[in-house]
Amino acid sequence: MTEHYFNALEQKIDQMIQRCDQLERDNAKLREREQLLKEERAQLIHTNEQTQSKIKAMIMRLKALEQGK
Question: Could you list the residue range(s) of the whole structural domain that residue 44 is in?
Answer without folding.
Answer: 32-57
